[in-house]
Write a structure and sequence with these properties.
This protein is of the alpha+beta class and 158 residues long. The protein is built from 5 helices and 4 strands; from the N terminus they run αααααββββ. A 4-stranded antiparallel sheet has the order 3-2-1-4. The mean pLDDT is 90.
């Protein structure tokens, strides 16, 4: 066996071990997150954003930083599920599909959250902008937390 096959086999073993360690609720959230990441990726890649925006909530509004403990717990589980699933999708699951999928998951559970879209000047080419999306629920950033504070918010959905 060559090194690539051994590496792939080890990856599958690790994935299986991690899956079996999870409880039923975590497995269900991971499955839902993976499915919605695929739909969100497809939607972001093919549909006009105005169509997707209609499913994200009210434009240019934000939710409260206060959240009841039960909803905060469920929101953290959703955030972890989306971030974890994004690592294992065969397609690239970057910040926008992650934020969209997590926002949908929160909305279906009637948990308030705000999806942010931000821009910053691209470091490699200052004439261009780099974009980022993140999702906040209560006072926690569920997806897109890394570096979000550097971006200028241009749009919100709640």
């Amino acid at each position: 066996m060559n090194a690539r096959r051994i590496s792939w086999f080890k990856y599958l073993q690790d994935l299986s071990t991690k899956w079996h360690r999870r409880n039923r609720a975590e497995k269900m959230l991971l499955t839902e997150a993976c499915f919605l990441l695929g739909i969100a990726r497809f939607a972001v890649s093919t549909l006009p954003f105005s169509w997707i925006a209609k499913s994200l909530g009210k434009h240019m509004t934000e939710t409260s930083l206060d959240l009841n403990p039960a909803d905060a717990q469920r929101a953290r589980m959703i955030g972890r599920a989306v971030l974890s699933a994004a690592n294992y999708t065969p397609w690239e699951s970057v910040c926008l599909p992650q934020a969209v999928a997590a926002k949908w998951m929160l909305s279906w559970r009637h948990i308030p959250g705000t999806l942010y879209l931000g821009v910053i000047k691209d470091r490699t080419n200052p004439e261009r902008l780099a974009a980022h999306a993140w999702l906040r629920c209560g006072d926690k950033i569920l997806t897109g937390a890394q570096g979000y504070h550097q971006y200028t918010v241009v749009s919100t959905f709640s």
